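Postdoc handover notes: sequence design on the structure in folder B. Input C-alpha cells:
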C-alpha cells in the first residue's frame, strides 16, 4: 500500500547548540513518530481520537474500546520536561486512531480485525518502535529504556508497572523471583543480567532503587515498589501486554529493557497541572533510574545533576509584555544567571545576564509576537524554557 510519509523539522537554537526534532507520520497520519535523541523510547497506543468511517469499529476477538484518556497530553508534558532536564527529546510513538478502530497492544489479527488500513497502521506503529529502539541503542551502546504508557480505570489510584509478571507471581519470595525462570519471564531480563550494582530481579522490581520506589518518592504511589511490593490478586493489576512482550528483552532478539506503565486518573491525567507535575516526577525518576542501573554515557544529552529541582513553577512577569525592556523572575527562581530570547522561527533576538534581583534587561524592545525565553544557570547547566508573549 502507498505510504504517505511527511517529515517536518522544528529547530530550536539554544545555548549555541542546534537542537532539532523531526516527525514522521504513517498512512493517513494515523501513527506518529516523534524522533528523539535520548536513550528513552515511549509508546502511547490507546490515547487516539481519530475515527475514520472507512475503518469499521472492531468486532472481532472481544474488543476493548476504552480510550486511555489524556495519555497523549501527558506524553507532551513528559517530552517537555525531559527536554528541559536533558536538552534532548525522547522518542515518542503515538497511535492517533481511536481504540475502536485499532488496538496496537494486541496481535495484528485481534488489533486490526482484518481491515487493511488498520493493519498498515498496526505495522507502522510497531516498525516505528523498532526504529526508535535501534536508533537509541546504536547511539547509547545498547543502553535504552522503553516504556509503553497507558491509563487504567482500576479503582485504586496508583501507578501499575507491568514487567510481564502476574499479580500472584509478584507475591513470590525474592529467592524464587530471582530464579532464571522468572528472570526470563520478565521484561527487564537483560538489565537483571547486566546492571551496574548487580541488583537482582526482586531488587529491580521492589528494592530501594526500583523504578516504582523512586517514583513513589514523588508522591506517585506505584506497584511494584518498596512501598507496595505486590498489587494483590483481586485488583485487576495490568502486568503488561502485547507491546511489552514484543518490544522488551523478554522477546528473543530484543536488546531493550522496559515495562508497561499504567497511570491512574486522579492526580496524574485529570488536569494540566497534574500532568505537568507527573511529567516532572517521571523525568527525575527515569534519569535517576538510568544513572543508577544503566552505566550510561549521556553525551550529547546532559541531564541535570540536581534532580530535586522543579522545572515548571517559574513565573516571569509582566507576561504578556505590554511595552518596555525588562522582565522579572519570581524571587524563588534566581538561580539562573543568563537568558536568551528566541523567536518562534528560531532566531535569537536577545540575550543577557540576569541581575541579582531577578531582572532580565533586554537590549531591544520585543516586537509583538510569541517568543521562547530560555533561562540558563551556567554553573550547573540547568535551563528552563517558557513562552513569552509580547503585545
Ligand atoms: Zn491502554
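Designed sequence:
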Amino acid at each position: 500500500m502507498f505510504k504517505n510519509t511527511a517529515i517536518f523539522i522544528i529547530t530550536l537554537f539554544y545555548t549555541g547548540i542546534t537542537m532539532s526534532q523531526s516527525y514522521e507520520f504513517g498512512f493517513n497520519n494515523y501513527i506518529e513518530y516523534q524522533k528523539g535523541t535520548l536513550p528513552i523510547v515511549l509508546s502511547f497506543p490507546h490515547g487516539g481520537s481519530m475515527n475514520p468511517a472507512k475503518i469499521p469499529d472492531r468486532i472481532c476477538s472481544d474488543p476493548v474500546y476504552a480510550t486511555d484518556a489524556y495519555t497523549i497530553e501527558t506524553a507532551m508534558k513528559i517530552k517537555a520536561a525531559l527536554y528541559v532536564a536533558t536538552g534532548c527529546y525522547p522518542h515518542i510513538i503515538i497511535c492517533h486512531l481511536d481504540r475502536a478502530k485499532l488496538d496496537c497492544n494486541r496481535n495484528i489479527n485481534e488489533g486490526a480485525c482484518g481491515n487493511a488500513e488498520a493493519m498498515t497502521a498496526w505495522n507502522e506503529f510497531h516498525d516505528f518502535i523498532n526504529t526508535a529502539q535501534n536508533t537509541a541503542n546504536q547511539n547509547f551502546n545498547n543502553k535504552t529504556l522503553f516504556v509503553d504508557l497507558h491509563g487504567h480505570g482500576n479503582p485504586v489510584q496508583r501507578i501499575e508497572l507491568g514487567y510481564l509478571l502476574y499479580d500472584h507471581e509478584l507475591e513470590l519470595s525474592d529467592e524464587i523471583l530471582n530464579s532464571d525462570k522468572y528472570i526470563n519471564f520478565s521484561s527487564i531480563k537483560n538489565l537483571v543480567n547486566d546492571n551496574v550494582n548487580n541488583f537482582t530481579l526482586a531488587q529491580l522490581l521492589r528494592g530501594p532503587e526500583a523504578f516504582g520506589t523512586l517514583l513513589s518518592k514523588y508522591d506517585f504511589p506505584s506497584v511494584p515498589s518498596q512501598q507496595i511490593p505486590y498489587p494483590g490478586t483481586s485488583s485487576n493489576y495490568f502486568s503488561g501486554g502485547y507491546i511489552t512482550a514484543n518490544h522488551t528483552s523478554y522477546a528473543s532478539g530484543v536488546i531493550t529493557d522496559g515495562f508497561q506503565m499504567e497511570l491512574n486518573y486522579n492526580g496524574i491525567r485529570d488536569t494540566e497541572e497534574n500532568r505537568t507535575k507527573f511529567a516532572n516526577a517521571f523525568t527525575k525518576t527515569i534519569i535517576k533510574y538510568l544513572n543508577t542501573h544503566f552505566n550510561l554515557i549521556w553525551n550529547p544529552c546532559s541531564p541535570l545533576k540536581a534532580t530535586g529541582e522543579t522545572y515548571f513553577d517559574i513565573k516571569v512577569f509582566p507576561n504578556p509584555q505590554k511595552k518596555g525592556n525588562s522582565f522579572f523572575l519570581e524571587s524563588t527562581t534566581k538561580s539562573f544567571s543568563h537568558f536568551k530570547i528566541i523567536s518562534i522561527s528560531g532566531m535569537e533576538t536577545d540575550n543577557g545576564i540576569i541581575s541579582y534581583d531577578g531582572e532580565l534587561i533586554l537590549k531591544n524592545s520585543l516586537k509583538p509576537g510569541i517568543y521562547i525565553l530560555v533561562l540558563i544557570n551556567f554553573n550547573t547547566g540547568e535551563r528552563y524554557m517558557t513562552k513569552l508573549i509580547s503585545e
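Context for whoever picks this up: Residues 1-19, 305-313 have pLDDT under 50 and may be disordered. Don't rerun without checking with the PI first.
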